[in-house]
Batch of 4 targets.
Target 1
Amino acid sequence: MSERSHGLQSWIDRLNQAELPALAAVVQDLQRLAQQDSASVQQLADVLLRDAALTSKVLRVGNSVYYNPSQETIKTISRAIVLIGFDNVRLIGLSVSLIDGLLTRAPREQLQELLARSFHAAVQARNIAGYVLSKHAEEVFIAALLHHLGELAFWGCGGEQADELAAALAQPGFETEEAVREVLGTSFRQLTQGLLKSWNLGETASLAHAGASQHDPAAYAVQLGVRISEAALQGWESPEMEAVLAKMAAFVDLSPEEALQQVLASADEAVKVASTFGASKLCRLIPNTDPEQIRLQQEERKARLLQPDLLVMQQALQDLGLMVSARADVGLVLDTLLKGLHRGAGLERVMLAVLADGQSRFRAKRVIGDKSEQWLQDFVLPAEQAEQPHIFSYALRNREAIWMGVPASYNLAELVTQPIRRSLGSGMFFIAPIVAGSREIGVLYADSRLSGRALRHEQFVAFQRFTQLTGRCLEAISKR
């Protein structure tokens, strides 16, 4: 079980020392250069060249049409600085580091949605700043990008506590601020300010969280960018968008219609920027500006969040109950099981892993859910490993259905081994033995990792019921 963090300092220490030290170091160094009037091309190149992967990504972005429309080939960091500018290269380095530091760790839906919103806010803020500031547009971009840094870091690195908060936020009638304080011992806003200060981003912190006053044009541009990115999720014609457009129009001296056109153009640009920075998976999460695409995107958003269907679940349970005494075959039993759990109980990914190869290994036998087909080829796990026991053998040996990722199962966390995490990812899941009489068949696994939503009690009850009925069906088949 990973150590729990509680309180602002505890989280800052954990994120800086254990979770994001490389990202913190790059961000600090890049920001220090911004504050030095005499910073040289070589100093910036030296910071980026410490990491070969970062260097190659910065060069790839520098060679993109977005930053280098003349398409003059850039082969070195120093050449990139000459061609596209010191501030642009620094911004690219920081953005790419943020994406790599967070998205490659735990690409849960909450993190992806927030990072997409952050990129959208950053582009909106920079373009608004272009109307009222002669320089510092890059600083405005970075401040808006890091506006939710604390929350981004938490969803990327929070582990079991992120699962715990996701579960709390999934409850009806929850109070967001209260739930966050309960799990973290601090607020996301305080965590953002604490991280920015510990990374020596004091000026960025003040820009990112200054009061929304027009007396500081840079800070006001950041606030407007952030508010536009949030309002866009409600729709381009929503009251929230109308209110923020009125503020933006007054600030940059445009009509509301012209302000809307600027905002829509910036949203399209944000998609290009996210893709250019190597975060194309975020593009689908930035609100679309084409009317037909807006409708499709809203439908996709609903479809991504698979909802339980009580009628489908009841029918599947009833069918399995009848199969205990009827002459059903194994295939029909398993099809009914997976359909009932996926479409009925609303579990996004389900896998039946059976004992195979002389009962020496678990192999994926049946799967359902987006991106689960690969398990049929890849998922293989030794049945018994004295040197590295795991949760699959534990569940089968103990004849026990387990809800992993809740406090009751924290003592079993070390049984979720590295090979299991590599195959299935991290976060909450259900696991239960499938037993036909006294004969061990295998293990049933289910999660909702695609959206990052927390699993619920009623889903666990359904999962247990399906497991028991399937065992009885298979026992009846074996007796015939």
Target 2
Amino acid sequence: MCQYLPKGGAGMKFRIAKMLLRLLAAPQSQATSSAPPSSPDDRATLERTLHELNDCMDLVHRKFPSNGMDVVYFAYLVGNDDLYRDIIQPFSNATVQEAAARLACLPYTEVQNSNVCIDGILEGMAAIFLKGKAYLIRIDEAEGRSIAQSETETVISGPHDGFVENLEQNLSVLRRRIKSSHLKTIELPVGEISKTNVVLAYLEGIANPDFVEALKERIKSVEIDSVMDANMFVQLIDENPNSVFPQFLTTERPDAVASKILGGRIAGFVDGSPSVFCSPTSFFDFFSSPDDYYQRWLLGTSLRILRLVGFLITICFTAFYVSITTFHYEMIPHTMLLNLTESRSRVPFPPLIEALLMETTIELLREAGARLPTKIGQTIGIVGGIVIGQAAVQAGFTSNILIIAVATSAIASFVIPSYIMSASLRLIRFGLIILAGVLGNLGLLMGIGFVIIHLAGITNLGTSYLTPLAPFNAGDVLDTFVRGPFWALRKRPSIVKSSNRTRNKMRR
């Protein structure tokens, strides 16, 4: 029984647990990855390692004269405290027999394959070479920002923590919320150069195993040099990559991810990204906010309905204005028609060009406000919108009624919780404006019909994007268009196709 075990901070506990799991799985995973020990050309040796990692100025090669041991690691990936505790202190004055006996204990892992040894060094481990054998020990320093509130998904009530760029921290946050032995995680490397770890998390017995296998196969089929973020990665595994609509829900909120996993969905973590993707996903999932569940159900329902109304306003309001001012004046009340005629009397452009110019100006202000520093961005958004809008009306560049229509459409897009979905709808708005300016109400209806047909044709892991509308499921309405009381939400969503759909046994 070895008495030497590393001691460290809070993050070290999770790393030790992960290391132990890997060691327990060594007969299947590491043994297979180092399976070619029979080939002498693939053996992990000091010479082969130094040759493979040559011309790296941050590579450290340390020798121990007392026992002839060599240690190789990257200086900027390891923690100084771990390096001193696990390598320098125990081996500096140790004899060959003492060093060999210590390396036979945890947390040192013997490796035989050269590729496994080099990959370990690249991940922040140190490689130890003694008497023709190679060992790995994890002494990497977990750097990154501390857990803080998500800036893109703020809530009024409820938890205020958010995911960060460190994969191990994100998994620990999830484990604290779901303390179940049925929570399973699968690690898959993606990226031939970056070797980014992608972890799938799901509840065994609740998540559909066919969905898990389908998502695993789709991830394994990705062949790309590097993956930098979850929002980038989901574009590689989309079933409809040319669609403007996002097909995987991404979020930075641990409570939202835990809720999705408990509902039978699969969550995907990408190392180096604070965003987590969930699947399968429907179109209406993008209009749900964690705030809905932290407030009374009547208030949550009204807010969710308000978002759906905002969705209709943001894609149709400006296009409808262009349609009626170009082709359908008879639809305007007489009292408003006089004001509209007077407002448009000095505008030199037709309604279509006028609307496109103002929508483009709004998008320029939005993009400028997002790219500039926070305080300057707020000034650009408020002052720029007021000054440009007022000046455009006074100069006869546009009508004041169009300013109201464009501003209302822009404000309505802000109520949608998902920024990616909001951006997609803003792009669709331009297409509907053009159709309305060319064909009037007929073009507007044709555009809406095309959008509905396109949504009906999108699938996510083989499930319909318009669930529970198509196919219709009355039981899911209580948690889609409205937020029903918790005692009424007895079943998991039908889209997950779970074998255990019961999630609530309360009776009222």
Target 3
Amino acid sequence: MSSKSKVVKPKFVIEPCSINVKVGSEHGNAALTHYLHNKNGVSHFYKDEATNQVKRMLEYNYPDNETTNQVAEEALQYFLFDFKKDVPFPEPIAPKFKFIDLFAGIGGFRLALQNLGGKCVFTSEWDEQAKKTYQANFGEIPFGDITKDSTKAFIPDGFDVLCGGFPCQAFSIAGKRGGFEDTRGTLFFDVAEIIKQKQPKAFFLENVKGLFNHDKGKTLKTILNVLREDLGYYVPDPKVMNAKNFGVPQNRERIFIVGFRKDLNIDSFEYPLPVSKSVTFQDVREEKEVSVKYYLSETYLNTLVKHKERHASKGNGFGFEIIPDDGIANAVVCGGMGRERNLVVDDRLTNFIPVTHIKGNVNREGIRKMTPREWARLQGFPDNFVIPVADASAYKQFGNSVAVPAIQATAEKIIQIIQARK
């Protein structure tokens, strides 16, 4: 658009805040935000539904006025140029490759690949709280349930890399060869189906370390058989990667699976080596005094101590753990134990008056939970990453996320290879 060109403001307009109004179809707001963030070549996949959503919004905001398709089109085009892209992590100005983000969570994969110059052209995530965090940071609302054909219909053609941290599920493969059809009813089936239909140059999948032994190894064997034999991709042996080897002080092991389309003639892949940077909890610790709400009550702390003592008497190592400033955190995971196994000592508290309902007084030993921001740093998220949800949701979201630096280091290797095949 030339500097002299002007976009005429239509009679009826919609404001950016209206995007969060739940009107219309389940895909309406996702399609609208995806349209606003994409340009020629991809935007047409979203334009019809985006226009329909604008029409619904106008009808919602201006119920006494007739909203024609032409009015909706004019409002959409005005919105396109008026749309505020002042999100913390905008798309690269001149992207080097395109990718899609499945089971996106709060965007760990997206952050890593955008850092490498990638443009995300489609994303899906079913959790509503995670969607709020994703939108706050990337300006897009993810599409929902990826198992639905109506959701898959919005996936554009021509992207380079498929990314996803799909959940681990057992397959019904008794007496069968463990192929594509045997994965039906699982979320991996939907990933494989998208790869089969869209034929990306590469894929990058992440899962828990336990996938290696899941269902006595049958699950991973089936996954690799589908990717290699049924889909025809070159898939090097998966590797367990630890976040602590990539610049964050967290002992987090995850299995990475990468693959390349066979016509690219790629027959080798080297996972990234650990970085030399040594970090400890001190490097991610809050710089200022944190709220008393993160400090354990004497009653709660006493319960944890007794619980650990009971297990210790049985020869078990279960129970809470305090991470020293010069130590490495345990894996941050969902659930109470994810926080209880990552307690810290912080004696900077000056106000011991509880701000939440607790049993007993606040402990005077300085023992507290890590904050959501500290968990974000343990996962490699920068400090300008917005946390718009309550603490309970934030812990869950960062616990479910990927460790960004480990993802980025591996993705960089993938991108280098496929770009060398242009």
Target 4
Amino acid sequence: MIMGFNSGLDIERSYYAATANPSPLHAPLTGEVDADLVVVGGGCTGLSAALHAAERGMKVVLLEGGRIGWGASGRNGGQMIVGLRKGAAELVKLYGRERAKALFDLAFEAWGLVLEMIERHAIDCDLRKTGHLVCAISAGDMAWFERELECLTTVMDYPHMRILSAAESRAAVDSPYHGALYDALGGHMHPLNYTLGLARAAIAAGVTIHEASPALRVDRRGGIRVETAKGAVRARHVVLAGDALLHGIDTKVESRIMPVGNYIVATEPLVDAGEVIPSNAAVSDSRFVVNYYRLSADGRLLFGGGERYTPSPPADIQAFVRPHMEQTFPQLKGRRIDYAWGGLVSVTTSRFPHVGRDGEVYFAHGYSGKGVILSTLAGKLLVEAIAGETGRFDLFKGLNPMPFPGGAALRGPLYVLGMLWYAMRDRLKH
């Protein structure tokens, strides 16, 4: 990750940074070193890959341009949502029942893997297994919920979902929706502390981490050589795990993602937090441009939302997000906001992750809002592929989203036009 691309986003003043577990500083890379695997990016994808590779006996060096976890992994909404961005019914429509179920099962494994990592490595990250709600902003969404529930139950063999009426939804979260789709296996956590826990586990397994060491280029001549300003790592393989912050390292990989900004606020601790979200579930709504929110361990509302379709941040993040929060919860109008931050995440044309390889260059990114748990699995799949175990990796690789049309010059404007259309459709639902 390169910290310059997060300038103005107040990541260092986020709620997560303010409540982060102690973590060591890691010296920048100086000089040339050798490894079996070099990982670019100190988020969950890169740390998971590094940890799983080290556990297989590989010598691993990880390069992070800023601080560990200060990319999307450490500043997201912290919502643990089972599945892919596309729903179960759409998976079946796109790929047929057998392949769709295989994809869903693999995505479900990501949920179990994250819970296993938390337990095995004693990661203190405010884990709450309180469920996840998708709330309907229009009555028409309830028909989609019915179709989705039927597919999940009959095709995916996933019996953990149920539909809530408008009254039941209001009892779970005090905002007027038409109903909700509730997943009992959802939940939420402190994503930065989870990421720092993965880093601690990776170090214990023998991984060498260098912070403040942005990767500048990958030289493939005569093997892999990743160069930084003050050093280089020579290795047999490289994992690119910088997501929206790779910036010029591999244009072929980057052509399949669009960096977009997302922004979150954290209120003051709420004495009535239990009345705002009585279920303490993680919540998102049915908009294409999603609002998402949850309670923190100390009773704050963490709310992400707003329509921002370019990487440039709003001049005032708090002022940008507050109207969306107060529209959802009018009872919180005027409540103090203690933290406001943002950052870049990546989406793909298909909204499926972009996982693959090009020679000895392996990569995974473009989680399109589902990276809280998918990223840990993706790192593991990359290492399986490096070790020659390609079956599960190939399943995700086969999703292979198309490049954004027009290359770097046009993908931004075309994406903005598309998102404006979806935003207008969201408004017409009301």
